[in-house]
Design brief:
The chain is mostly helical. It has 22 helices and four strands. This is propane 2-monooxygenase.
Length: 551
């Protein structure tokens, strides 16, 4: 079909748009944005007549690669360390895709643009397709990998586990609160335009380096759809910019969306790329180098900065602080250490770091060994049961962290942890001042004197530790369902050895101290006790070390 006939077909579709006159529509998902002066254009016209053949061809490639992986014995060659981390990744990623699909109808009633409605409808189909091929990928892994435990129940249980709850709050941000904040700024303008670069481009490259060429095929098929989603977001952004009343909300939402994406996506993808790989070539990029190229240069400098010509204030300080977190404060390394500390509450096996890993980290991140090396040596020493408890209960100079109420990633850069005490005297911990601002100021019915009734709230039992406070660890693991078919051996292990004599069981967990929630403990303290707790916490680290006694 010629480009001219595509344009005509696209125009014809807009003529079919209509608004019902026989009843007053119910605005279930509202927005505080206004579009009174918005130009109504779709910069990337797409119609189903061209869309479906294109997607069909991509699906043929995905399923052909799947068949080739099985016939070519890929699962005999792929690195176990890599595929174990995919148990976490592939349990989480379908939910953001489904949430993204659900978020598109939220925009239909608040963005007065029939052209964009067409693009949003096609994006909704994209997102459903993405979640389908991703879940099918997990099914293929489960059916062919040497250790399917974890793949088989992660989709059902990840919402209540140690790490998966972080992914859940990230995905639910696409479908809660102000429709433009959630489905446009947070999803299409930040998550899809910026962070899918590391998610769907950098990560597949690392998969291939570990012998997994199936994930790159699937995720490059996903990433090839993102240009349309980016176009939807950019068109909506330009519409919002045409009304001066929206500027305050746009600047608020860019700050929130950027920071929450950084906290969650960098935590997860950075860990997969740095700690899930066996590829330790000196010339391969570290996650910091990937981030600088794919996000800082390609998104921040080429996409965000030009928006300043419209008078929009860009969160330069947060982008620089995100880089500071990754490069100077060891954010990704702290996250990987936290995941491994709580291996017993997960559903995959976490391989320890070796001398080759140590050498690579020291080369890419000078000073890494002095901060994290000793802890990983202790992790290896305590990996198999031999009369000791899991590492989280042993004396390895690690203080278990408090959770951030907002992003739900723990407060791992200890110096940045802040708190807020509410009128009912309850206190919450936040990993950074921006997360405190998000909860206490941005997600409120009034923002800087302006009524914002459509904004969401961060409520509920958000911290995983609080859900199980006081429980015996054997009961925690059983309740989550992370037990193998024999009814006693744990799905998670702090090593890759499948010898039953080397694996941890529920009996080992029963002798451990009960699970304690730092949030519950903090709230039980008096004012002086809370102040002492906060002061001590801010002096801890790096790598979770206790505060110096002479500090």
């Amino acid at each position: 079909m010629s480009r001219q006939s595509l344009a005509k077909a696209h125009q014809k579709i807009q003529e079919l748009s209509w608004e019902p006159q026989y009843h007053e529509p119910y605005m279930k998902y509202g927005t505080d944005y206004t579009f009174r002066k918005a130009a109504k254009k779709d910069p990337l016209k797409q119609v189903l007549r061209s869309y479906f053949p294109m997607q069909e061809e991509k699906d043929h490639r995905v399923f052909g690669a799947t068949d080739g992986a099985i016939r070519g014995n890929m699962f005999r060659q792929v690195q176990e360390r890599w595929l174990e981390w995919q148990k976490l990744f592939l349990s989480i990623i379908p939910l953001p895709e489904v949430s993204a699909a659900r978020s598109m109808p939220m925009l239909f009633s608040v963005v007065p643009n029939p052209e964009l409605h067409n693009g949003q409808a096609i994006q909704m189909i994209d997102e459903v397709r993405h979640s389908t091929i991703q879940q099918n990928l997990k099914r293929v892994y489960m059916n062919n990998y040497i250790d399917p435990a974890g793949f088989n129940n992660s989709l059902r249980n990840f919402h209540s586990d140690y790490c998966g709850t972080i992914g859940r709050q990230f995905a639910e941000g696409f479908i809660t609160g102000d429709a433009i904040t959630a489905a446009s700024i947070y999803l299409t303008i930040v998550a899809e335009t910026a962070f899918t670069n590391t998610l769907f481009v950098a990560m597949p490259a690392e998969a291939a380096a570990n012998g997994d060429y199936l994930l790159p095929t699937v995720f490059h098929s996903v990433q090839s759809d993102e240009s349309r989603h980016i176009s939807n977001g950019y068109a909506t952004l330009l519409m919002a910019l045409s009304d001066e009343d929206n500027r305050q909300l746009l600047e608020r939402d860019l700050r929130y969306a950027w920071w929450n994406n950084h906290r969650v996506v960098d935590a997860a993808i950075g860990t997969f790329i740095e700690y899930g790989t066996k590829d330790r070539r000196k010339d391969r990029e570290s996650y910091a180098e990937m981030w600088r190229r794919w996000i800082y240069d390609d998104y921040y400098r080429a996409y965000l900065v030009p928006l300043e010509k419209y008078g929009l204030v860009i969160p330069h300080d947060l982008i620089e602080e995100s880089w500071n977190q990754i490069w100077n404060k060891g954010y990704v390394h702290e996250v990987a250490q936290f995941f491994a500390t709580g291996w017993l509450a997960n559903y995959w096996r976490i391989d320890g770091m070796t001398d080759e890993d140590f050498e690579w980290f020291e080369y890419k991140y000078p000073g890494w060994y002095d901060k994290y090396g000793k802890w990983w040596e202790n992790y290896n020493r305590l990996a198999t049961p031999n009369g000791h408890n899991p590492i989280v209960f042993e004396d390895v100079d690690y203080v278990y962290p408090s959770r951030c109420w907002t992003c739900m990633v723990p407060c791992l850069v200890r110096e940045d942890m802040v708190t807020h005490t509410f009128e009912d005297n309850s206190i919450r911990t936040y990993c950074h001042e921006v997360c405190r601002w998000t909860d206490v100021e941005a997600f409120q019915p009034t923002y800087q004197g302006r009524e914002t009734p459509n904004m969401g709230r961060l409520v509920g039992k958000r911290e995983w530790e609080t859900l199980y406070h006081g429980w015996n660890w054997a009961d925690v693991v059983s309740d989550m369902g992370f037990v193998r078919d024999d009814g006693k051996t744990m799905t998670a292990q702090p090593h890759l050895n499948l010898d039953p004599k080397k694996m941890w069981t529920l009996d080992h967990m029963r002798r451990c101290p009960p699970l304690g929630s730092p949030n519950v403990v903090l709230n039980e303290l008096d004012e002086a006790g809370r102040a002492a707790f906060i002061a001590d916490y801010n002096k801890q680290g790096p790598a979770g070390r206790p505060a110096p006694t002479n500090a």
